[in-house]
Amino acid sequence: MDLLVVVPHPDDEVFGAGGTLIQYAEWGLETGLITLTRGEAGRTLGLCAPEELGEVRAQELRRAAEVLRLGHLELYDFPNGRPNGAGAGEARGLGFASPEGVADHPEIVDLLLWRFEVLRPRAVITFAPNGSNRHPDHVATHRFVREAVRRSGQRIRLFYYAPLSPSPEYQEGWLPPTHVRHLPLEVLLRKLKAMAQHRTQALSVLNFMDRFPHRLAVESFHLEGHEGPVERELLWYAGP
């Protein structure tokens, strides 16, 4: 596989990498997505009962995956946590982890290690150390993926979501972009269509569009270990 995105929730795939996934699939590269939870702790907006949300969001993700032209999709049902530790029980989710980030969920690292061995991704995209917005599940997923890549022994190019300029409250843990991609209009329109598939999370989608409109048409990433000038493409392949 050429490019694999690993995120905790349905809709995490589209905001920061949706256009890149679309464009790389158009160029004939093999793209894939691993989503660790069904997002059952999110909003329903009255579109379903709370106990139905996990399945509804799974359906939304499958529709978005079609728009993104993903060649491979895996959706798991690890517990979804709420931001800032709100709620109790299973709401603590992936982010209920030790400071080292992996000790409380070794099964997730083991799962990712196995999937990397099977899928053999050339590049992986996930969240940066700050999780973009410090959501505990985002931060934990960064740690799980980084550890699985380390253990794999494979030559995997590990990319993190890296907005050009972070909000002041998310400055800690932000990494500067090493790769910046400007999306063509036709790709941007399809990215917006993929975002629209996550209907139960429409308020999150609108909030993202309101606060970070510049991130709709520009997707930027930080490549771990990168040295040199900012580049355009994530792989050896530079487009048609």
TrEMBL record:
<dbReference type="InterPro" id="IPR024078">
    <property type="entry name" value="LmbE-like_dom_sf"/>
</dbReference>
<dbReference type="Pfam" id="PF02585">
    <property type="entry name" value="PIG-L"/>
</dbReference>
<dbReference type="GO" id="GO:0016811">
    <property type="term" value="F:hydrolase activity, acting on carbon-nitrogen (but not peptide) bonds, in linear amides"/>
</dbReference>
<dbReference type="InterPro" id="IPR003737">
    <property type="entry name" value="GlcNAc_PI_deacetylase-related"/>
</dbReference>
<keyword id="KW-0378">Hydrolase</keyword>
<protein>
    <submittedName>
        <fullName>Putative N-acetyl-alpha-D-glucosaminyl L-malate deacetylase 2</fullName>
        <ecNumber>3.5.1.-</ecNumber>
    </submittedName>
</protein>
